[in-house]
């Protein structure tokens, strides 16, 4: 009998070993929110950080792992953290946007963000999600494939996060506070940064330069994140090509480019293959803004340096700082043509291992206008917005008012009265020529309105930019879901003609998409994640002005289609 049982035992052991390899583990991180003195541009200021680090700590996990991040607030500001791009399947309590899925963590309090990474691998990021605190509170999330699962591209020699940011000499909380009081545009940043460093093209910053040290003939994976507050960016490395392999933690059909375009909130993984022979030169890697609006902006360039290790060098330092240095040629500031063509090249792999599960049928169609507007100036006050008003921004002319109680808790407890209304408009209440001459009345309405979706609803959403106070690109981010970008164009969306050109085979899948200036974008997603999910422009100034809304996805019938109760340590307002 023992002999006949042995193969069964061996197969069981093999199965258990395989299960332990593929099953995720729990990874725990300690995040202490604390102030730290940091010097940039020859000026020292006190900034909010995680664990005293700027940028913040790197989170590394594998697909299928569970993360527990204990956040303790030691600073005199309320704080909440968002895990940007994480699906948060049935874990909406951990999503993080203040007053949407949780009350913020108050001074002296703590909260454990507890979630599992399901079906995702690539680069995402985390950041503060209250006021403008994400200016310094951000860091990368590196999601590796499951053990034993290779990348669908050449294995890189090394992997490096590249995080773009913005640096203000002033206190960013005072910058936005002043702007909201006066109704005018906020002061712009003083520099862009790569991994927290402004680089040699700024005064007093040569010593604060990110240097990527490489070997000849190697392939590097750059995990690029745009965490700038208010600026889309172009990025290029002099005399080198970049192969795009992944956006927003979704593999794509790879293509090679000299320059990439990336909006705030987006991530892009690229392969950089170095020259096979030592080039006797160094190379700038530069980023500068892509600009579409009429407001002021930080018209400067951040640079890092790509340095080659000399394999023939006998000196202790094999990096030569005295070599000639080359600069890349970046698109002009308003090169919408480049941005459009770049986005059109992005296609899902759409293969058996990594399918593109595009909803082929649609249960609900929505049409949202996104853009700027105005609020009247309060009596006895002088305002610095358009024609003496206050700047505002809206979706379907509703400028979102942040509640004082968290929406998710209000929904879950059945106490929504006085907190939010469930009547967000599914289309503009007063249609107009969206990209033509703007209407005379540019005032917005203000309210806390949600749009309710039954569980598993398939959604098609067209987002249309408007010319009110100037056409402008808007990077829209949806929490709790990835979506497929099935179409985009310029001018007014035509519901009779434009759907014929939709890509329902291999559209790019992502969590943040730019609505083209003076144009539209169409996305599809399946509402298979119960909870309250924020959707907003990822330009921080537009969030502050109200360009945001939230979806309420109801529970399904089955136990695994329902939102669990909140954790016991959920912060209180």
Describe what this molecule looks like in 3D.
The chain is mainly β. Helices cover 9% and strands 37% of the residues. It is built from 5 helices and 33 strands. It has helices spanning 2-22, 172-182, 336-344, 407-412, 540-545; strands spanning 26-40, 43-50, 59-62, 66-73, 81-84, 110-116, 122-128, 138-144, 158-167, 191-194, 211-214, 219-226, 232-237, 242-247, 250-257, 259-262, 267-273, 282-290, 302-308, 325-326, 364-375, 390-395, 398-400, 445-447, 450-453, 457-465, 474-478, 483-490, 509-510, 512-515, 519-527, 531-537, 548-553. The radius of gyration is 24 Å and the shape is globular. The model is unreliable at 1-21 (pLDDT under 50).
Q: Indicate the mean pLDDT.
A: 95
Largest sheet: 6 strands, mixed
Helix residue percentage: under 10%
Count of individual helical segments: 5
Would you count the extended β strands for me? Answer: 33
Widest sheet, order of strands: 10-9-12-17-14-15
